Amino acid sequence: MCGTKQAAINGHSSSSSHSCIEAKENGVTKKLPSDSVINLDHGDPKMFESYWRRMGDNCAVVITGWQSLSYFSDITSLCWFLEPELAEEVRRLHRLVGNAVTEDRHIVVGTGSTQLFQAALYALSSPDADEPMSVVSAAPYYSSYPTLTEFLRSRLYRWAGDAHGFDGDKPYIELVTSPNNPDGFTRKTVINRRGGKVVYDLAYYWPQYTPITIQADHDLMLFTVSKSTGHAGSRIGWALVKDKEVAKKMTKFIELNTIGVSKDSQVRAAKLLRAVSDSCKQLGSQGSVNFFDNFRRLMINRWECLRNVIRGNDLFTLPEYPKEFCNFAGEFTEAHPAFAWLKFKEEIKDSESFLRAHKILTRSGKHFGVNKTYVRISMLDREENFEILLERLSKISAKQQENGPSLRAS
Amino acid sequence: MCGTKQAAINGHSSSSSHSCIEAKENGVTKKLPSDSVINLDHGDPKMFESYWRRMGDNCAVVITGWQSLSYFSDITSLCWFLEPELAEEVRRLHRLVGNAVTEDRHIVVGTGSTQLFQAALYALSSPDADEPMSVVSAAPYYSSYPTLTEFLRSRLYRWAGDAHGFDGDKPYIELVTSPNNPDGFTRKTVINRRGGKVVYDLAYYWPQYTPITIQADHDLMLFTVSKSTGHAGSRIGWALVKDKEVAKKMTKFIELNTIGVSKDSQVRAAKLLRAVSDSCKQLGSQGSVNFFDNFRRLMINRWECLRNVIRGNDLFTLPEYPKEFCNFAGEFTEAHPAFAWLKFKEEIKDSESFLRAHKILTRSGKHFGVNKTYVRISMLDREENFEILLERLSKISAKQQENGPSLRAS
Fold it and tell me: Where do the segments described as Disordered lie (chains A, B) (predicted)?
């Protein structure tokens, strides 16, 4: 059974029945009623918990009361609040995975890549410009980009929508998320005009989600532990920045916005990244499992299960990803994204509402600059919730096959 | 000797000579050349390190690899990223110290109080207003307020300078820092117009700095561990907010800005606040020293030393603070602020440059909305640096007494 196999990969077993499903919450196993709402709106990476649990105390970090009192981490560094050990582990992991160039790059740490995104807008726009810099991204784009760009009504930059429709001749910032959130495809810039600035959000450019085909070498690249190791609660991201002045301005933004970034979380993130690197080189404790192999297998399995459920119905479809050679895995593989980008047939006018009626919370395509026949569904929740998702989609699918094409949200 | 007494209070001894001074940096004792620059520009609270070192492993926090992966802390709470144990310890400590009302208040956690300040501006201004909301504070005001208000060129709010000079009839936000940064005086609003919004920054309203005369009961109050326990590197602050809608908007700001606040640091801050509360109730480990008594004594001693050095010269003066009854200490006491607000006589046109020439980095009055005869000097650095400060001020003072009033920066 699909669910059982996944649970085994994930290192613990779960049983599901019609009356209840077991779920672990804060380490406590609870009975979830099988009719409870599952929230797959956010990309909350709880899938990673069981791996870290198996890794045991070796990955625990101890922070004494007298550590990290100062605002400063390294006053000789351009990014004075960056813990040197985090910088070291970031470079080591990128070298090992081969997903990004770190040589001759400045590392700027942020309170998640969300803060770094805002730091990048600040750094790439100009206070002396006549008008706000246009910020664009090709639809479907990450749903938070418009709000993050607009919420403070800055005169430095403004949201200008889908990059495909951008026809101004003024300076612009293009946001490229690759693999893309929500749809998982590899992305490039679409505007390619001289003087354009580009921010590459590479949060999902890790072997568990997508084949690592090149060592990314862009001017400004964003990463985060939330999607690499799964530690979203730590709020740690980093930028790899080619230009010194841009890195300085990003650092200035974070200085003004939050006077640096939690040292506790930086120290912890360093330890976790080290554990991931060690696991790849089998340097970890006995029984340590290669992090990326583990999660590649898990994602492959989840996607296989999801495609099995979808297969044979014409109510909704999933994107198909090309097979490409992954330099890290050493084999041809397709993407297994962190989100399922589900397209419903046109008669389901509002697929988010449709799924909500089936107690599955997702995010509508309208938030990503496309229409409401699309929804984004997190593939990173705990095993139990993923199984409920499969069960419910399976029921919807079966019902559709019974009832034919006139199915409406019940 | 002043220095020796302080070092004893601080729990370790230091020796100073003309050739070198011992300084602890990251737990390693280093020889500081006695002519090295001391940086007292920032309020970096390294003074607190030795206390926490003495508290030992009881205050260490252990965070396992599988903790805190989720973005969410408590989805039933208005501030969904606030760790419940931090909320509990915040309420407990305020009750114990008696410095702020927490009953019927919403707690919003932030990445330091700097982020909360920006969240407050966002929450108190209106996106529908015809023009940006004026933000004011009575000079001398915290040097970062103008920049924090202006750096993103928001259309929501704008810096409008000294509250004393504010004569608009439009809505405004008044920032009240009490005790005030830089000068240490207790503050109230100066505008007092109907419809005015007020943000109270109470970062320094703790017994080590000032007598606790009332339980503060304002609509919006900001606190931070940076100045209470001394853990600036953790970047944890909290707001106590009366109005639910304001608390919601502040939470929204932090959601957009950084998708919450480091859980690692919240868990750690909870442990440290608990240790402080326990120390006050003598519930801690054997040998645990009452936190506030310890730092009250230390600050009293530092101020006594500083005033001794200043006494008898007419080059610079310090503010005098009234004696008031401190409900926490149960005695009359004056303020012993985190910063010395030094006023030079008029012929020293630029006192920051003057002190820089004596290898003391400070912050000029011009950043606080007043003239350059003032400087702000941190009183929270490690013992060794504080001793160097005393030594250098003492020399300047002696030289001035020799040379008379014509002294210039050497």
Answer: 1-20
